[in-house]
Protein backbone atom coordinates (compact mmCIF):
# COMPACT_ATOMS: atom_id res chain seq x y z
CA UNK A 1 0.00 0.00 0.00
CA UNK A 2 1.29 3.45 -0.87
CA UNK A 3 -0.47 6.60 0.25
CA UNK A 4 0.69 10.00 -1.00
CA UNK A 5 -0.05 13.31 0.69
CA UNK A 6 0.39 16.50 -1.31
CA UNK A 7 0.69 20.12 -0.23
CA UNK A 8 -2.41 22.28 -0.54
CA UNK A 9 -0.84 24.31 -3.36
CA UNK A 10 0.70 21.25 -5.05
CA UNK A 11 1.75 21.99 -8.63
CA UNK A 12 3.82 18.88 -9.35
CA UNK A 13 6.94 19.56 -7.29
CA UNK A 14 8.26 16.37 -5.72
CA UNK A 15 9.24 18.30 -2.58
CA UNK A 16 5.50 18.87 -1.99
CA UNK A 17 4.71 15.15 -1.76
CA UNK A 18 5.06 12.86 1.24
CA UNK A 19 4.41 9.15 0.88
CA UNK A 20 3.83 6.39 3.40
CA UNK A 21 4.30 2.71 2.55
CA UNK A 22 2.86 -0.27 4.34
CA UNK A 23 2.98 -4.02 3.76
CA UNK A 24 0.30 -6.52 4.71
CA UNK A 25 0.68 -10.19 5.49
CA UNK A 26 1.07 -12.37 2.42
CA UNK A 27 -1.49 -14.94 1.30
CA UNK A 28 -0.01 -17.73 -0.80
CA UNK A 29 -1.53 -18.12 -4.25
CA UNK A 30 -0.81 -21.85 -4.04
CA UNK A 31 -2.35 -23.00 -0.78
CA UNK A 32 -3.80 -19.91 0.88
CA UNK A 33 -1.28 -19.94 3.74
CA UNK A 34 -0.79 -16.52 5.35
CA UNK A 35 2.69 -15.40 6.43
CA UNK A 36 4.33 -12.12 7.37
CA UNK A 37 5.69 -10.02 4.49
CA UNK A 38 9.35 -10.77 4.01
CA UNK A 39 11.63 -9.45 1.32
CA UNK A 40 14.59 -11.42 -0.04
CA UNK A 41 17.04 -8.62 0.71
CA UNK A 42 20.17 -8.76 -1.44
CA UNK A 43 21.26 -5.15 -0.93
CA UNK A 44 22.28 -3.19 2.14
CA UNK A 45 19.77 -1.08 4.06
CA UNK A 46 21.66 2.08 3.07
CA UNK A 47 22.39 1.09 -0.52
CA UNK A 48 19.97 3.56 -2.11
CA UNK A 49 20.28 6.44 0.36
CA UNK A 50 24.04 6.64 -0.12
CA UNK A 51 23.30 8.49 -3.36
CA UNK A 52 19.54 9.17 -3.23
CA UNK A 53 19.72 11.29 -0.10
CA UNK A 54 17.17 14.00 -0.82
CA UNK A 55 13.68 13.61 0.60
CA UNK A 56 12.28 14.72 -2.75
CA UNK A 57 14.68 12.65 -4.81
CA UNK A 58 13.47 10.97 -8.00
CA UNK A 59 9.70 10.82 -7.99
CA UNK A 60 6.68 10.71 -5.69
CA UNK A 61 9.04 11.30 -2.74
CA UNK A 62 10.65 7.97 -3.48
CA UNK A 63 11.45 6.72 0.06
CA UNK A 64 14.74 5.00 -0.75
CA UNK A 65 15.33 3.94 2.86
CA UNK A 66 15.91 0.28 3.75
CA UNK A 67 17.35 -0.55 0.37
CA UNK A 68 14.45 0.86 -1.61
CA UNK A 69 11.70 -0.77 0.42
CA UNK A 70 9.27 1.98 -0.57
CA UNK A 71 10.07 1.51 -4.24
CA UNK A 72 9.12 -2.16 -4.07
CA UNK A 73 5.56 -1.15 -3.15
CA UNK A 74 5.03 -0.32 -6.83
CA UNK A 75 8.03 -1.75 -8.66
CA UNK A 76 7.61 -5.39 -7.73
CA UNK A 77 7.49 -8.58 -9.75
CA UNK A 78 3.80 -8.44 -10.59
CA UNK A 79 3.18 -4.78 -11.40
CA UNK A 80 2.72 -3.39 -14.89
CA UNK A 81 5.18 -0.49 -14.53
CA UNK A 82 7.16 1.01 -17.37
CA UNK A 83 10.26 1.83 -15.26
CA UNK A 84 12.02 3.75 -18.00
CA UNK A 85 11.55 1.01 -20.58
CA UNK A 86 13.66 -1.34 -18.48
CA UNK A 87 12.98 -4.90 -17.38
CA UNK A 88 10.14 -5.89 -15.05
CA UNK A 89 10.68 -5.97 -11.31
CA UNK A 90 12.76 -3.89 -8.89
CA UNK A 91 16.23 -5.38 -9.43
CA UNK A 92 16.14 -5.27 -13.23
CA UNK A 93 14.78 -1.72 -13.08
CA UNK A 94 17.65 -0.57 -10.85
CA UNK A 95 20.28 -2.17 -13.06
CA UNK A 96 18.77 -0.75 -16.22
CA UNK A 97 18.13 2.73 -14.87
CA UNK A 98 21.76 3.02 -13.80
CA UNK A 99 23.62 1.28 -16.62
CA UNK A 100 21.24 -0.17 -19.18
CA UNK A 101 18.60 0.99 -21.62
CA UNK A 102 16.73 2.91 -18.93
CA UNK A 103 19.77 5.07 -18.16
CA UNK A 104 19.65 6.82 -21.53
CA UNK A 105 17.45 9.66 -22.68
CA UNK A 106 17.38 12.34 -25.36
CA UNK A 107 18.35 15.93 -24.62
CA UNK A 108 16.63 18.96 -26.16
CA UNK A 109 18.76 18.58 -29.28
CA UNK A 110 17.80 14.95 -29.73
CA UNK A 111 21.22 13.68 -28.65
CA UNK A 112 21.34 10.53 -26.52
CA UNK A 113 22.68 11.16 -23.01
CA UNK A 114 23.18 8.90 -20.02
CA UNK A 115 22.41 9.70 -16.41
CA UNK A 116 25.13 10.42 -13.88
CA UNK A 117 25.22 6.86 -12.50
CA UNK A 118 26.52 5.59 -15.83
CA UNK A 119 29.98 7.02 -15.04
CA UNK A 120 30.35 4.29 -12.41
CA UNK A 121 31.82 1.21 -14.06
CA UNK A 122 29.19 -1.54 -13.73
CA UNK A 123 31.81 -4.25 -13.22
CA UNK A 124 33.31 -2.50 -10.16
CA UNK A 125 30.35 -0.36 -9.06
CA UNK A 126 28.29 -3.33 -7.84
CA UNK A 127 29.50 -2.57 -4.29
CA UNK A 128 27.50 0.67 -4.36
CA UNK A 129 24.44 -1.49 -3.64
CA UNK A 130 25.64 -5.05 -3.04
CA UNK A 131 28.16 -6.35 -0.55
CA UNK A 132 29.88 -9.69 -0.23
CA UNK A 133 27.62 -12.66 0.37
CA UNK A 134 24.27 -11.19 -0.68
CA UNK A 135 24.23 -12.08 -4.36
CA UNK A 136 23.26 -15.74 -4.51
CA UNK A 137 21.85 -16.77 -7.88
CA UNK A 138 20.83 -20.12 -6.44
CA UNK A 139 18.47 -18.27 -4.07
CA UNK A 140 16.59 -16.52 -6.88
CA UNK A 141 13.10 -18.06 -7.11
CA UNK A 142 12.54 -19.99 -10.31
CA UNK A 143 9.41 -18.00 -11.08
CA UNK A 144 8.46 -15.57 -13.82
CA UNK A 145 8.25 -11.88 -13.10
CA UNK A 146 5.59 -9.86 -14.87
CA UNK A 147 5.49 -6.20 -15.84
CA UNK A 148 5.73 -3.82 -18.76
CA UNK A 149 8.95 -5.14 -20.26
CA UNK A 150 10.71 -2.50 -22.36
CA UNK A 151 7.47 -0.62 -22.89
CA UNK A 152 5.40 -3.66 -23.90
CA UNK A 153 2.62 -4.66 -21.50
CA UNK A 154 1.52 -8.14 -20.48
CA UNK A 155 4.92 -9.81 -20.75
CA UNK A 156 6.96 -12.03 -18.44
CA UNK A 157 10.69 -12.47 -17.91
CA UNK A 158 12.80 -15.05 -16.14
CA UNK A 159 14.36 -13.30 -13.14
CA UNK A 160 18.12 -13.75 -13.57
CA UNK A 161 17.93 -13.00 -17.29
CA UNK A 162 15.89 -9.87 -16.57
CA UNK A 163 18.56 -8.60 -14.17
CA UNK A 164 21.55 -9.47 -16.35
CA UNK A 165 20.04 -8.25 -19.62
CA UNK A 166 19.42 -4.87 -18.01
CA UNK A 167 23.16 -4.21 -18.44
CA UNK A 168 24.28 -6.95 -20.83
CA UNK A 169 21.75 -5.92 -23.45
CA UNK A 170 23.40 -6.64 -26.76
CA UNK A 171 22.06 -9.31 -29.10
CA UNK A 172 24.80 -11.87 -28.45
CA UNK A 173 24.30 -11.66 -24.68
CA UNK A 174 20.55 -12.11 -25.02
CA UNK A 175 21.03 -15.06 -27.37
CA UNK A 176 23.28 -16.72 -24.80
CA UNK A 177 20.67 -16.25 -22.08
CA UNK A 178 17.87 -17.54 -24.30
CA UNK A 179 19.89 -20.62 -25.27
CA UNK A 180 20.06 -21.41 -21.57
CA UNK A 181 16.34 -21.02 -20.98
CA UNK A 182 16.13 -17.29 -20.21
CA UNK A 183 13.52 -14.93 -21.58
CA UNK A 184 12.63 -11.24 -21.33
CA UNK A 185 9.35 -10.96 -23.23
CA UNK A 186 7.38 -14.18 -22.71
CA UNK A 187 3.66 -13.76 -23.38
CA UNK A 188 1.57 -13.94 -20.21
CA UNK A 189 -1.01 -16.75 -20.23
CA UNK A 190 -4.60 -15.94 -19.37
CA UNK A 191 -4.54 -17.51 -15.90
CA UNK A 192 -2.14 -18.38 -13.09
CA UNK A 193 1.05 -17.13 -14.73
CA UNK A 194 2.61 -16.89 -11.25
CA UNK A 195 2.58 -20.68 -10.87
CA UNK A 196 4.79 -21.27 -13.92
CA UNK A 197 8.46 -22.14 -13.50
CA UNK A 198 11.11 -20.81 -15.84
CA UNK A 199 13.71 -22.93 -17.61
CA UNK A 200 16.69 -20.61 -17.20
CA UNK A 201 19.82 -22.35 -15.92
CA UNK A 202 22.06 -19.31 -15.38
CA UNK A 203 23.06 -20.27 -11.83
CA UNK A 204 24.66 -23.50 -13.05
CA UNK A 205 27.65 -21.60 -14.39
CA UNK A 206 27.30 -18.09 -12.97
CA UNK A 207 26.43 -18.57 -9.28
CA UNK A 208 29.17 -17.48 -6.90
CA UNK A 209 31.88 -20.11 -6.68
CA UNK A 210 31.03 -21.63 -10.07
CA UNK A 211 33.43 -21.81 -13.00
CA UNK A 212 32.10 -18.57 -14.45
CA UNK A 213 30.72 -17.12 -11.22
CA UNK A 214 29.58 -13.50 -11.36
CA UNK A 215 32.07 -12.53 -8.63
CA UNK A 216 34.88 -13.25 -11.10
CA UNK A 217 33.65 -10.44 -13.36
CA UNK A 218 31.88 -8.12 -10.91
CA UNK A 219 33.28 -6.70 -7.70
CA UNK A 220 31.15 -7.37 -4.61
CA UNK A 221 33.90 -6.84 -1.99
CA UNK A 222 34.20 -3.50 -0.23
Q: Numbering strands along the chain, what is their spatial order in the largest sheet?
A: 7-8-9
Radius of gyration: 18 Å
Provide the residue-averaged pLDDT.
82
Order of helices and strands: EEEEHHEEEEHHEH
Helix content: 10-25%
> Main beta sheet, described?
3 strands, antiparallel
The 3D shape can be described as globular
What is the number of strand segments? 9
- Computed structural class: alpha+beta
Separation of the first and last Cα atoms: 34 Å
Number of domains: 2
| Uncertain residue segments | none
Beta-strand share of residues: 5-15%
Helix count from the secondary structure assignment: 5
Can you describe this structure in just a few lines?
The chain has 222 residues and is α+β, with helices and mostly antiparallel strands. It is built from 5 helices and 9 strands.
Amino acid sequence: LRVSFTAKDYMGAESDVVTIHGYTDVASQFDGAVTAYERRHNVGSESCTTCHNSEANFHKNGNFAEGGLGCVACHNNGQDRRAGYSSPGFGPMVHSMHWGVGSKSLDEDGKEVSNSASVIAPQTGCVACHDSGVVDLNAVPNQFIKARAYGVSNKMASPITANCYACHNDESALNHMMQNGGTTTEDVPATEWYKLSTTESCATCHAEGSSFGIEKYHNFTR
